[in-house]
Each structure stands twice: as C-alpha cells, then as structure tokens.
Amino acid sequence: MNRIQIIEQVYNALSAKITQGEIPISLRAPALVGTVQDDPFDCWVADTIRGALPDIEVFHSGKLTTPDLVLRCKTTNSLLGLEVKKLIQKKDGKDPRGLTIDYNSCLPCGKALVKVGENTVEVPCFYLFALLSPDSSSMVTTILMDGDFLNYDFELHKDAKYANQSEYDHGPYGEGSIRHRRMYTYPNPLNYKLSFFHLRHILIVKQHELASFARRWAPCTDLIIRADKYQNAFYYIVIDGVSGKYLPFPLEKLPVRQDIFKACKERKPKERTASMPQLPE
Question: Measured between alpha carbons, how far is 9 from 265 in angstroms, rounded to an integer?
C-alpha cells in the first residue's frame, strides 16, 4: 500500500461512518481531558483509523509536535503524516474562524520530518480539517487535503520549525526572558463561505496521483487549480464519496475552480497601537 492508497483507505473509513450527512463521533468526557494539548478528537481519529484499518499502525507524535499522527503500512512500511485541525461550529451553522486558521509555530506543508529510530526522514503529510457540530457529537464537514495544497515549500516549513527561540537576561534586573514564538495563519478550508467545501466530506489529491489509487474509478466532483506567485499551476481533484458521481479518468469535464483563497491574499497589514487605561478628567 503506497501513501496515496493509505489516505484513500482513511477517507473511505471515515466516509463509511456518514449518517444523514454527518459523521457521528464520541469524545472523552471533558472531566477526563488533561491539559489543553490533550485533544480527545485527535485520539478519536487515531482510534477510528486503527479500528477500521488493521494493516495501518498509528503513532501519536506528542504534544505540540507536527504532524499529530504518523501512519505506517505494516506490509510496505510506507509512511504518511496526518495533521488534525478541528473547529466547533457556531449555532448559526458558520465556522468560528472565517478566512484563516492558526497553525501555531509551524506552518502547513505537504512534507514533514519524522524520526524513525535514529534516522530522520521526510514523509508526505495530509491534513484532516473537521468542523464539529456545536455539541461536538458529529463532524458536519471533513476535508482530507494534501498539505501541498496549502504550502509546497518544504524549506520554508523547516525554517519556520526551527525559528522559535528564547532570549534571557531581560529587564532591569536581568530576570526576565522573551519567548520568540511565531504564529502563522494560513487559509481556513472550513470557512463557511467556501460553499464548495462547506458541509461536505471530501478528499483533495493531486490530479496526477489519481492513477495511484487502489481502484480505477473515483467519485470526482471538482478540479481546483492552485496558481502560485511564480506562474506555476498545480492541479488538484476533489473526491466526494458521498454525493459525487463515479467518473473514469481523464476528467476534462469537471468544473474548474481557481483562486479559491483570493480573500486571504487581499488582506492588508493593520497598524498596531499600544492600548492603555483611559480615566475621566
């Protein structure tokens, strides 16, 4: 099983759980959750993959480590990173973030560094974006996405990974410190305004990798062209196992979507000012 077939199997396992348009989930009770880094949803995803795919080993990377999960095929030793990003749906049906979502101190990428024994290896990385219902009892949107869809620059990813640092001997007594920890915001695929993603359960892969699927037919619904700043164009296919129609390759007649995150590019820097208490005279 190659990496594309691994993610195909993961998508099929999640899609098989869909009832009435949602994927039911059961999370640990809040009283049993430890620190803020102890995410019961990550654990649910890992347990679901283990239960549905006995040929796949699932490893948790640890707190504040990217990717959240590493999958390994027992028969081929193929490795795949899986970063899990979730949001809780607002009562009005919208997502709580809008244009962008936080990626903390490590920006998204289609590759990640993983230790296998003493050896550091580069592994492909997919992202699972999930919009949970307001009561966190189900997933109303799921998007399994190749990390390259958000950023294909692995060198930029590695630079960001090691950019954090601390500065000591700060302040008049030399007792303080400064923690330089970058925060990255990149597009939020769960944005409710992206109607072609919202409330769907889809898989997004590179078009040329469709030939690596275990089956030769796939329910493809859209072609998305991601054009970068250097006049390069990358073609991605949206697969919808719930509402998509099974079509043979090639897929020239699919609707084409371009510049889907245009609003992110149109943002302008805001001038920051220091705030202070204001008292009446």
Answer: 34
In a domain, 248, yes or no: no
Question: Domain count of the chain?
Answer: 1
| Separation between Cα atoms, residue 70 and residue 123, nearest integer Å | 9
Distance separating alpha carbons of residues 246 and 5, to the nearest angstrom: 18
Query: Rounded to whole angstroms, how far apart are CA atoms 9 and 56?
Result: 10
Helix-then-strand count for the chain, H and E? 4, 16
| Residue numbers of the domain that contains 37 | 3-206
- CB-based contacts of 239: which residues, under 8 Å, 6+ apart? 11, 202, 203, 204, 205, 218, 219, 220, 221
Check pLDDT > 80 for residue 215: no
Examine residue 82 and state whether it is found in any structural domain, yes or no: yes
Parallel/antiparallel/unpaired status of strands 111-116 and 119-132:
antiparallel
Residue 265 located in a structural domain: no
Mean pLDDT of the region 125-150: 97
Tell me whether residue 273 is in a domain. no
- Tokens 């102890």 correspond to 38
Pairing outcome for strands 111-116 and 246-247: unpaired
Q: How many CA atoms lie within 13 A of 243 on its CB side?
A: 13
117 three-state secondary structure: coil
Q: Based on C-alpha coordinates, what's the Rg of the chain?
A: 21
Contacts of 106 (CB under 8 A, 6+ apart): 66, 157, 160, 161, 184
Q: Whole-angstrom Cα distance, residue 210 to residue 249?
A: 8
Q: Which of the two residues, 248 and 99, has the higher pLDDT score?
A: 99
d(Cα 209, Cα 7) in Å, to the nearest integer? 12
Predicted confidence (pLDDT) per residue in 26-49, tens digit: 886 655 555 555 578 999 999 999
- Provide the 3-class DSSP secondary structure of residue 105: coil
